[in-house]
């Protein structure tokens, strides 16, 4: 306790010296989703179980497929975020620190989930499968990317994970109505092999209130946007300047945590239904810091413009990423935890 207080004063002192320093004045944010099932506090009610399947225990090579018409500055934000997973250069609490919680999960041979590194990118600017994608057609997007000439991605079925990111003008089955992203694995009948993949959509135009929370507010929530404890204005500012992209960052992190711990949907999940499993990030939806729950996203930091964040990344970037279930502490956890 004393240590923490000391640290706090030290940072306030630094703030006086430098206006570009981030503020450690943690602030809470109110969630519109009061009914959210989240478990920031320890809970014996969570029956997260291991179902004997594999986890991604070889060093994970991540391949991005940019589908559609992407803004280069949005791409740069996402690329820096993904490069932050394997970087030791960012200050604590970092994206790499956040990944350490995911690495606590093991398979039945005792192998932990491994490291993750961005290993290739493909630009499907011609919308190879059109502007409406079904869940299944996302697999054809991957097939196109690994078969394309001349700049195909490798078909890496040993330790590859494919991340399909759709632009503002692409509709995806259930996007904005039920989901902001999902993960699954490819079928041999489509790709010839089974490889894990995830999809996340850019929600900035279609449904920021649904997928870019807490940077945007759901229009139909029936509640006014939150006010900050210091009487500031309504919404949390996006640390990289775009609610759609900053919201996507947390969804991407959510899907990478789950595809690694439940790649074939037979490893780590709670509940008895493998068709609708509650996975390690689902358990902590809307939780970004200590004290989350009951409508609060928890204590996070403010940058010098007042935008919210809880993790540092490469190139001085800041990100807001939800917590995941920690299997040893048996509660939601992130490296910005204050307890
Ligand atoms: C692997 O998982 C075990 C069990 O959760 C944990 O004690 C250990 O620290 C993990 N190792 C790494 C490298 O994260």
Automatic annotation (TrEMBL):
- The protein in question is named Protein exordium-like 7
| Domain of life of the source | Eukaryota
Q: Lineage of the native species?
A: Eukaryota, Viridiplantae, Streptophyta, Embryophyta, Tracheophyta
Q: Which GO terms describe its cellular component?
A: apoplast
Keywords, sorted A to Z: Apoplast, Membrane, Secreted, Signal, Transmembrane, Transmembrane helix
Q: What gene is behind this protein?
A: EXL7
**Can you name the source organism?**
Nicotiana attenuata
Q: Which family does it belong to?
A: Belongs to the EXORDIUM family.
- The reply to whether Secreted figures as a keyword in the UniProt entry is yes
| Segments traversing the membrane | 7-30
Pfam families from the entry? Phi_1
UniProt subcellular location: Secreted, Extracellular space, Apoplast
